[in-house]
Amino acid sequence: MKEPKKILMVNFGGIGDEILFLPAISSIKKEFPNAKITLALEPRSKSIKDLTGLIDSVLCVDIKGKHKYLELLKFVFKARCDRYDMVFSSGGNKLISLLLFLTGITYRYGYDTGALSRVFLTKAVKLKKNQYASFMYHELVTPVTDKKTLYPEIDAGEVEKEPNSVLVHPGVSKMSVSKNMIKTWTPEVWAELVKKVLEKGKKVYLIGGPDDKDCIEKMVDIIGDVPNFQNLYGTTKNIMDLARLTKKAEVLICSDSAPMHIGVGVGTRTLALFGPTDEKKLIPDDEKYIAIKNNADCRPCLWDKRQTTCEELKCLKINLDEVVELL
Fold this sequence. Notes:
- It contains twelve helices and twelve strands.
- The protein is α/β, with parallel strands linked by helices.
- The protein folds into two domains: 6-141, Rossmann fold (3-Layer(aba) Sandwich); 165-325, Rossmann fold, CATH 3.40.50.
- Strand 8, helix 8 (213-223) and strand 9 (229-231) form a beta-alpha-beta unit.
- Helix 9 (239-248) packs across helix 10 (258-266).
- It is globular and about 60 Å long.
- The termini are far apart.
- 43% of the residues are buried.
- The mean pLDDT is 92.
């Protein structure tokens, strides 16, 4: 195999998925340092390029828009015109291998989803879902490299840690809420946790994205104007601002959402709330990154067993004092 000059990586999903995909890109870059890497992704996740120097360009494909099939045709046409030497694609759809074949790219790698994938792919990699997602994605590149990148790495620059500081990000995307995927506490519970963290003598900074406005406002009303508490909502202008704030904090407390993956990416000690989702797939098994969870028999259920959360939400009933003890 000649050393590739242009490599296409394909990963459709939210910004969290793109962060989890970074180790695969990193290992490819280590193996082929002179190759130009393009990442094909959904428009909502294009800011991933701001978090890393590994990606030379992005190719946006709006597969969740009204014109999904037109977008895929445009993707195939663009990939053919750009003449990539190699392509790696995540996703378990059985037609992905055919899509890659149509691009005309010589070397094609994806998951083994059946007979089609074994015909149309250079190598069909066994899909092992029951592991940390970064490891799952990384297996896509094992046919061409022995390099191993364990966790996502986000380049947030030099940032000095603030001792005794705790960054709290309570939100999840409105998309998950609209689909009845409840993965986080109510503002009242988050506010109670902040009070307990303050009582322990910590400095607490509250942060959130545009989707979190109502939650943040309710929390601020409950917490009030107290020492060592600062509401930073609205001060971050982009995802890199959030990454730098996260790197500055001694500890991040958040829900199972993109900020959790940013916490891992910048190496900040992270306590992440897991209710219906499976922590084994979404956060590293590492003492630096801790899943806040209970032992409800019904969890985890979301995605593997059901597509929405139940009304009881027993999985989100957690003793806040035990959370504070983790700090």
